[in-house]
Amino acid sequence: MYGWHGRLLRVDLTHQKVSIETIDPKLLKDYIGGRGLAIRYLYDEVDPQVEPLSPENKLIFTTGPLTATTAPTGNRYMVVTKSPLTGALAHSNSGGDFPTWMKRSGFDMYIFEGRAERPVYVWVNEDAVEIRPADHLWGKEVPETTETLLAETHPEAKVACIGPAGEKLALMAAIMNDKHRAAARSGVGAVMGSKNLKAVVAMGRKNPAFYDDAGMRALSVELSKEVGVDVKKGSNLRIYGTAYVPQVTNALGILPTRNFQSGVFEGVDKIDGVALKNTYLITHKPCYRCPISCGRLTEVPEGKYAGKGEGPEYETIASLGSACGLDDLAGLLKANYRCNELGLDTISTGLTISAAMEMYEKGILTDEQTGMPLRFGDADAVIEMVNRIGYRQGFGDVLAEGSYRLAERYDHPEMSITARKQEFPGYDPRGSQGMGLLYATSNKGASHMEGDVAYEEVFGVPVKSDPLSTEGKAELVARFQDAFALIDSGGICVFFAIRYVFTKERMVWPVRLTQLLNLTTGANYTPEEAMQAAERVYTLERLFLLKAGSGPEQDTLSPRLLTEPLPEGPAKGRVVELDKMLPEYYAYRNWPGGIPAPEKLVALGL
Amino acid sequence: MRVRVKLIANYMKLLPPGTKGNTVELEVAAGATIGAVLMPLGVPLDDSTVLLLNGYQAEADALLSEGDVITAFSAIAGG
Questions:
Q1: What is the pLDDT of residue A507?
Q2: Average per-residue pLDDT in chain A?
Q3: What are phi and psi of A500, to 5 degrees?
Q4: What is the pTM assigned to this prediction?
Q5: Residue A579: pLDDT band by 50, 70, 90 thresholds?
Q6: Are residues A183 and A65 in the same domain?
Q7: In total, how many domains does chain A have?
Q8: Which domains does chain B have, with CATH numbers?
Q9: Which single residue of A194, A328, B15, B36 has CA 20 to 30 Å from A280?
Q10: What is the arrangement of strands in the sheet containing A296-300, beginning at the earlier edge strand?
Q11: A341 with A480, same domain?
Q12: Chain-chain contact of A274 with B75 (C-beta, under 8 angstroms)
């Protein structure tokens, strides 16, 4: 077999049993790998109605055929499970080094099932797989856990682990790898914690051969050069990382500000990529062998916010920063570092704190309930709430359930900025209509990583699209969703792949991506077949949602976005016109009433 | 008439020397277009740039009025 190992590792935590299984080659071709292969297994093996934090749920780590290859950015893995935050599907993506090391351990997927009686970690060194006690690690934060495990296993191994937040089942708990990288969203860390699985450590030297070794290497060099030309010209991702984006979204009036009460933040100059570069940036830090290198290593050298780590990404600036009214960059960095150390998703954490701040300022929450004043712009309050969420102490125990449950509890649902109970990323959809449709229909709840049409509406890639218009957005969102399913199943990074997925006519036409997949696997996909596989993946995920009870009635947004117009900026007066776009979306997908039509399922082989 | 020009991130280097931050106020001829203002600064006016006029997407041939804000940034991204 080429490209894929055709093998998965199954770890039964309840019975402390490890088994190795072969994967049907037809499944590999039909679902590509990564996110696609994982949903096929999850759908077949887990009752969609399962309680997400019960032993009956399964936690899948998965790589794609392009992971650990010479393909530029071929270094992503995904965590797929049923989400305790949304009750729908989780598929959280991460880079760093771990994904390549996992693939080199000789497996396409790890499936963790059941629940260990005591805390454990799993050490995968090719076929030598051990389930080891982790009592000594329980309660430890991510950096110490990682260091300890490297000392106990192998200094060249790579670690994915949870922090206290995952152990304590915070619904926004992440799985952290290589200390600073996160499969962040939808509470995947809580599922890992519920299984008493503290960490997974991987290494190995097994890698599948390429179907066409010379061809793969030549195409990889060519594509790396193309990316390299832009990097040399001075691309924003290399110079500033994603941290340059707040200036763009602020200019459009869609930078989340004070819990989405505005889209214009007066303090943006103090927390953007330029400010970061002039102050705390040490250097850029790539995922393994990435030619783009958008990651940032930063340090606040002294004072009460002293710390060091990676970030902040744009999403963190928008959630822990402007959404919390915070213009103190050092404080923002500290909040970011603490999220990473505790193992928390910065988006959901930031927007849960911002919801609490709005409720506090409006007198809905009192000092007695919160334990301390929670005012917008107070960095100390943000950091303290991050700590309390991570350890579920005091009011943090309430916040650890996310903003949806917080707002319901105090009878102000409009203050939770969520879709399918998951907090929004950093694009206010009232000024970015396609993003509104995307959030409402995404299989994983509000997310930019499931079809980021901000590429068109905000960044002009592959072509500009008016962010205030609803016209054509149904088709655009559906195409982007399928394209992202292809990218995620392949195991590469969207920052690279987005260049090669769309034509200027906006058609999804993944010629280069298909070539990479074919040279790697020999699967001989046509671009049409690759896109059909992607649509198959997306549709099977939808079927999982329908069975989980997260169907068409959940294809909506929090009331604020539908009824409260933005008060200022270019999108002033706008709400999300979901009622216009949603029927068009169902029609484009052939999902009458939000349910895939039988003939659609037949056409996709489902 | 006077307009403000905001060049974001890697385009900041195209601002006139001595500009503080990412925004400069310029005196331009009445009836000037976005392109006429940005071209002398060296801002690419092809599809590698996204242009905004007062926060709305605009083309290089858009006519300017007193007090307008032009924003330009490179059309590749992520976040």
A1: 77
A2: 97
A3: -120, 15
A4: 0.98
A5: very high
A6: yes
A7: 3
A8: 2-74 (3.10.20.30)
A9: B15
A10: A281-284, A296-300, A307-310
A11: no
A12: no
Interface predicted TM-score (ipTM)? 0.96
State what percent of residues in chain A have pLDDT above 90. Answer: 96
Q: Has residue A37 been placed in a domain? A: yes
A215 is a domain residue: no
A431 and A561, same domain (yes or no): yes
B8: closest chain A residue by CA? A247
Nearest C-alpha in A relative to B51:
A460
pLDDT given for residue A4 in this prediction:
98
Listed residues A405, A422, A439: the one ending a domain: A422
Domain containing A13 equals 7-203
Give the mutation candidate from B8, B11, B23 for the A interface (greatest A CB count, under 10 A).
Answer: B8
Contact A460 B21 (CB under 8 A): no
Contact status, residue A499 vs residue A75, Cβ threshold 8 Å: no
> Do residues A459 and A404 share a domain?
no
For residues A76 and A159, membership in a common domain is answered with yes
- Across the interface, whether the CB atoms of B73 and A253 are under 8 A apart is answered no
SS3 content of chain B, % helix, strand, coil (to 5): 20, 35, 50
Q: From the list B10, B47, B71, which residue is nearest A236 (CB)?
A: B10
Question: Which residue reads 């969102």 in tokens?
Answer: A477
Separation between Cα atoms, residue A193 and residue A356, nearest integer Å:
25
Q: Is the pLDDT of residue A506 over 80?
A: no
For residue B77, pLDDT over 70 is answered with no
Best of B11, B56, B69 to mutate (most A CBs within 10 Å, chain A): B56
Confidence of residue A505 (pLDDT cuts 50, 70, 90): confident
Sheet containing A175-177: order of strands: A128-133, A120-125, A197-203, A158-161, A175-177, A181-183
Contact residues, chain B, for A452 at CB < 8 Å: 78
State residue B66 phi and psi, 5-degree precision.
Answer: -50, 130
Token pair recorded at residue A148: 């300890």
| Confidence category of residue B79, pLDDT binned at 50, 70, 90 | very low
Question: Which residue's structure tokens are 């953007």?
Answer: A272
Residue at a domain's end among A422, A440, A464: A422
Which of A461, A471, A493, A494 would best serve as a mutation to test chain B binding (most B beta carbons within 10 A)? A461
Are A390 and A442 found together in one domain? no
